[in-house]
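for the writeup, i need someone to sanity check this before i put it in the appendix. the sequnce is what the collaborator sent (i think, or maybe the updated version? ugh). structure was predicted straight from it, no edits. if anything looks off just tell me and ill rerun, i have time this weekend
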Amino acid sequence: MAGQATKIVDHIYKVGGAGFTASQDAAVYLVEFEGHAALIDAGVGTATDKLLANVEAAGVMPEQIELLLITHCHFDHTGGARGLRDVLGCRVVMHDLDADYLQFGDNLVTAAYWYGDTIEPCAVDRRLVGTEEKIVLGGRVISALHIPGHSPGSVAYVTQSGGMKVVFAQDVHGPLDATLLSNQEDYQISLQKLLDLDADILCEGHYGVFTDKAEARRFIRSFMV
């Protein structure tokens, strides 16, 4: 199976999402440092073979993937988590406040029912707690920043590559919904946190990759009230 991958900056690629894998998938990003790799989010799980072919197209072998970094529990980001963990043996990482909804297969809070589907329960190997934690990959640091609002345990992952600060904040745009346990006040505070990061590159889940700092800031500000 031929794969496709888009290089964003050194060591970072887009490998999943509409146009890459399944149409319902949120974006999936690949980070590779010194032969050690991580995926950020997993899509809905209906195109895992295609996703792994795309990883190979980026020059990374699937067996190099050590971590699956989940931004939040929603189905378009986590439906494929169980399959990837089973196939790759990678460790699933997400915030404690969202982890149970994936681990125990909650179809309401994960929004799987929005897709007319059910989520496969998946073990969470590392539960992030508090406002910020450091994750080491290939001797380099990826920071996990808690940005609640869209979901209770939403996380942005932040790293440096090619002299650029890269922020993976998958659902900057929301939406907010009571069944997702969204919180408007938390969301607005989190948007300010994202703005304060002053990202050189913003990798979003549904609106693509912003490689212009001013454009990324405008995008974040557009949801602030």
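The longest strand covers residues 140-146. The radius of gyration is 16 Å.
thx in advance!!
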